[in-house]
């Protein structure tokens, strides 16, 4: 099954911190300029060492295989399923915001599917291949705003090409990314990309990748007209769920804690203007 990709440390969220965060949010929101946006800096230069089209082709193949297996088991939601329609409606508001973070996203063949499983899980593979598990929606009772923040976070990993950069970093310490490989026209790099299909669903992202995904996802959601504060209530729910016996999956790789909530509370006011503008235009 899917394993997703975070190394932040588990820690319970402080109720006092939450109260302070929302007080600070209320005071700063009105001053947030409409064009404010989060600052995550440029994407990793390492991603350029692995061909994007190779990664995206491997992703498409792996995603298609996973959906076929889910369909065989009767676990793939049909197009008419209400929860799937809800997710696709959210995606329809987030996807138009994606090119500002990665121009390649304009040509991606985006897909959104829902898999029937008790797992608390979701992912977006390179090239815009999104899937949610029913356990995430049902066990956490996610609102549309919270589901949008999950989707935005996962889309951000794809838009910032974290998988592409991570593969380059993990493979690049050897000869594959050596000067000799580059002189050979990157042919060996192509072989790397051709063999990473299974890695795309087991790859672990760094703490820095997760910070970027939180903030880019926050802005994607705000620009789509979803309440930025939902990013905090989402991770509060995640923190509570992590105390139970959920098994491996999203919660084991996306742990929450006061650092994550504090960082989000600092950035929510920066995107309030974007949210208000989008909400007014709906």
List keywords for this structure.
12 helices, globular, mainly alpha
How do you describe this structure in short?
With 282 residues, this protein is mainly alpha-helical.
Describe this structure in words.
The structure is a single chain. 54% of the residues lie in helices and 5% in strands. With 282 residues, the chain is mainly alpha-helical. The chain has one domain (15-281). It has a three-stranded mixed sheet with strand order 1-3-2, with helices on both faces. The longest helix has 24 residues, at 258-281. The two termini are 37 Å apart.
β-strand number? 3
- Biggest sheet layout: 3 strands, mixed
Low-pLDDT segments: 1-34, 173-190, 244-248
Strand order of the largest sheet: 1-3-2
- Global mean pLDDT: 78
Structural class: mainly alpha
Layout: helices, strands, pairs:
Elements (H helix, E strand, L loop, with lengths): L14 H15 L22 H21 L9 H13 L16 E5 L6 E4 L3 E5 H6 L4 H16 L2 H10 L7 H5 L3 H8 L12 H17 L6 H12 L8 H4 L4 H24 L1
Parallel strand pairs: 1-3
Antiparallel strand pairs: 2-3
Helix pairs in contact: 1-12, 3-5, 5-9, 5-10, 9-12, 10-12
């Amino acid at each position: 099954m899917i394993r997703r990709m975070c190394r932040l440390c588990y820690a319970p969220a402080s109720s006092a911190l939450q109260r302070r965060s929302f007080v600070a949010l209320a005071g700063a929101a009105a001053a947030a300029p409409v064009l404010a946006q989060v600052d995550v800096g440029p994407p990793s230069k390492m991603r350029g060492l692995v061909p994007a089209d190779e990664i995206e082709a491997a992703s498409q193949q792996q995603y298609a295989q996973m959906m076929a297996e889910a369909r065989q088991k009767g676990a793939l939601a049909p197009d008419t399923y209400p929860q799937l329609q809800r997710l696709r409606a959210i995606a329809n508001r987030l996807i138009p915001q994606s090119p500002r973070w990665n121009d390649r996203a304009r040509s991606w063949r985006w897909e959104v599917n829902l898999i029937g499983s008790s797992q608390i899980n979701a992912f977006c593979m390179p090239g815009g291949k999104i899937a949610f598990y029913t356990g995430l929606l049902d066990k956490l009772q996610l609102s549309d705003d919270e589901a949008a923040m999950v989707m935005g976070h996962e889309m951000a990993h794809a838009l910032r090409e974290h998988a592409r950069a991570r593969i380059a970093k993990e493979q690049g310490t050897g000869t594959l990314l050596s000067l000799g490989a580059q002189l050979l026209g990157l042919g060996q790099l192509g072989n790397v990309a051709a063999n990473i299909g299974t890695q795309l669903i087991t790859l672990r992202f760094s703490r820095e990748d997760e910070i970027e995904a939180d903030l880019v996802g926050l802005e994607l959601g705000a620009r789509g007209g979803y309440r930025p504060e939902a990013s905090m209530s989402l991770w509060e729910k995640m923190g509570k769920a992590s105390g139970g016996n959920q098994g491996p999956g999203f919660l084991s790789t996306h742990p929450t804690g006061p650092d994550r909530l504090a960082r989000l509370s600092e950035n929510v006011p920066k995107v309030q203007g974007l949210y208000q503008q989008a909400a007014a235009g709906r």
